[in-house]
Amino acid sequence: MALPSNEMISWLFETYSWLLSNLGGFDAFKKTKLVTPTPEHFPIRKSHDPELAEKLFEIVRAHAGMQNWPCKLQAHDGGRVSHILSKHNMPHSSSEQSAAGTFSVSQDRAVIITYRHDQVNHPVSLIATFAHELSHYLLATIPNEPPGGSDAIEPATDVGAVFMGFGIFQANSAFSFQQFSDGIMQGWSSSRLGYLGELELSYALAIFVSLHQIDPDPVKRHLDTNPKAYFKSSIKDVARSRPGELERLRLIEIHKG
To answer: Concatenated DSSP letters for 68-98?
Structure first.
């Protein structure tokens, strides 16, 4: 039975605890829905709509409850994205190369999220990118570091996207994310291949599904071959070996400072 290491599983539960403590507690989390790649959650008819990316982004923002959070969406061609940041008078890192997506914050708190324009041909990947960048935005509001400290920001952002309800997309689209900073600006760049891999993301999804007491069988139908197998093993492990951890998460209330 393929599972993450015990150390990784413990970290995933600790990260859920950190997120719950800082983002409204379990009562708020209960309102988070599991987003699926279906017309129910993405009611878009034209797959070749020139505004498809913008429409998907707005839907992802709405599912995340972040539709009113100010930010600008920009496409790039898969090369350097520094010219986009420069147009907005934002400092940028010379090491920032061909990213699938980026999240950047300037000194005056302007937020820009970018994506590769060719990802429009791969909506699941594009949705996963948007969810990850919005997770960066959400986690930037948390004053304390995730379990593992600053070195764990990237994987914690992966878990954050699952926590927001996009675990199916994250598990089906493994990404890697690299932080960059330059003076008064900071951001993250994402590319294919995964910082947390399919195995870890599938386990994070299993925690989400178990906390919400969702029937796992319909979830499996939306997962690709590897994530589906990992998810099945993870669901069994959570049920058999982690009931105590689940109960502790359900008892978490909002962090009071």
So the answer is: TS--EEEEE-SS--HHHHHHTT----TT--S
**CA 4: distance to chain centroid?**
19
CA distance 190 to 213: 31
Q: Which of 125, 119, 201 lies closest to 163, judged by CA? A: 201
**Residue 20 contacts residue 151 (beta carbons within 8 Å):** no
Domain containing 212 equals 6-250
- 82 in a structural domain: yes
Residue type, 51: E
Residue 256 has which token pair?
């009071």
Neighbour count for residue 86 (Cβ, 10 Å): 11
Q: Distances in Å between the alpha carbon of 238 and those of 17, 30, 80, 181?
A: 15, 18, 42, 37
**Average confidence (pLDDT) over 235-241:** 98
Instruction: Report residue 129 as tokens.
Output: 């990118």
How many CB atoms are located within 10 Å of the residue 215 CB?
8
The model's pLDDT over 19-66, given as tens digits with 9 standing for 90+, comes to: 999 999 999 999 999 999 999 999 987 666 668 899 999 999 999 999
pLDDT in tens, 197-226: 999 999 999 999 999 999 999 999 999 999
Enter the tokens of residue 5. Answer: 């290491």
Q: In this structure, is residue 188 part of a structural domain?
A: yes
Question: Taking CA 130 as the corner, what is the angle to CA 215 and CA 114, rounded to the nearest 5 degrees?
Answer: 175
pTM (2 decimals)?
Answer: 0.84
83 has pLDDT over 70: no
What's the structural domain count of the chain? 1
Average pLDDT estimate for 161-178: 83
Whether 201 is covered by a domain: the verdict is yes
Asked if the structure places residue 168 within a domain, the reply is yes
Strand partners, 175: 192
Instruction: Please calculate the CA angle 245-246-249 and round it to the nearest 5 degrees.
Output: 90
